[in-house]
Specification:
20% helix, alpha/beta, 5-stranded mixed β-sheet, 4 helices, 3-stranded antiparallel β-sheet, 169 residues
Length: 169
């Protein structure tokens, strides 16, 4: 993986992520091996925004690649949350930002055949989580404070501005 140059928006890395909720009010998370290979965390579908790519386009692309679910960028609406801060990774260090979109689906059979080589080597599994399971787990889950955000979204409370979540590095 090459070291990304700073982006025009000032971030070293920008990601578009998706809070994918199903008809049983569960959220899809991927168990991802950390970058040093010494542990794992559960993360939402999503990934890097390519230069010149709109956030919603990146979120729709990443969702399709990682889960097989096809959603048009216009169906996503604006981001519902974001987090940003400094990160020092083996392939880049600097200011990172994650933006989160919210998508509901009645049901979806996850298809990970579109994962890239790097993702295939780092995604250990995927699963649908209930809010009670997320609240009770001792496994690391990113972003932090995901459960309160999901509770609001499931109750139909969509923020008018993206909720600022704490940075996780």
């Amino acid at each position: 993986m090459s070291t990304p140059a700073p982006r025009a928006d000032g971030y070293r890395r920008r990601t578009a992520r998706v809070l994918l909720l199903d008809g049983a009010d569960r959220v899809l998370l991927f168990k991802f091996m950390d970058f040093q290979g010494s542990g794992f965390c559960w993360i939402t579908p999503g990934g890097g925004v390519e230069d010149g790519e709109e956030l919603s386009d990146a979120a729709a692309r990443e969702l399709r690649e990682e889960t097989g679910l096809v959603v048009g960028p216009g169906e996503l609406g604006p981001p519902v949350a974001m987090t940003h801060g400094y990160a020092d990774r083996p392939w880049a260090s600097g200011e990172f930002r994650d933006d989160f979109f919210h998508v509901r689906t009645r049901a979806h059979e996850v298809d990970v055949s579109g994962l890239g080589e790097y993702e295939r080597s780092h995604v250990l599994e995927h699963r649908w989580w209930t809010l009670d399971e997320l609240a009770a787990t001792t496994d690391p889950v990113l972003p932090h404070e995901l459960v309160p955000l999901l509770r609001d979204l499931l109750a139909g409370v969509v923020p008018s501005e993206p909720v600022q979540l704490p940075w996780h590095h």
